Amino acid sequence: MPIDLAEPSPGVLEFLTERHLATLTTLRRDGSPHVVAVGFTYDAVSRTARVITSDGTVKVRNAERIGAGGGRSRAAVCQVDGRRWLTLEGIAEVSRDQAAVADAEERYGARYRRPRINPRRVVLIIAVDRILGHA
Length: 135
Description:
This protein has three helices and eight strands; from the N terminus they run E-H-E-E-E-E-H-E-E-H-E.
């Protein structure tokens, strides 16, 4: 069921701050899904999901690839806990900007735990334009 991006319910916002892993889906060159387990954060104000990862990973290469029809690549993160679930979808981009990476690391640390040091870290940023689920 679609969820209002402009006014997600308190239950949705709470679910997005609880410590749960999620799956990240990006698309390979042949269009098939690449699905991996990740930690992520969501900022309801900017409607942005962030995943920290190492540069050069398959998810990074997929996010940087031009999408179908020459458009930008899309990605989705999906979090499940029993009967509650949320999928956040949107345009994906990769940032190597150190300030953006540090911000994503800080957000990740607040939700999960402080990430290990990784000089090759980048942040995959999803500009969320659709939320589906039941929370």
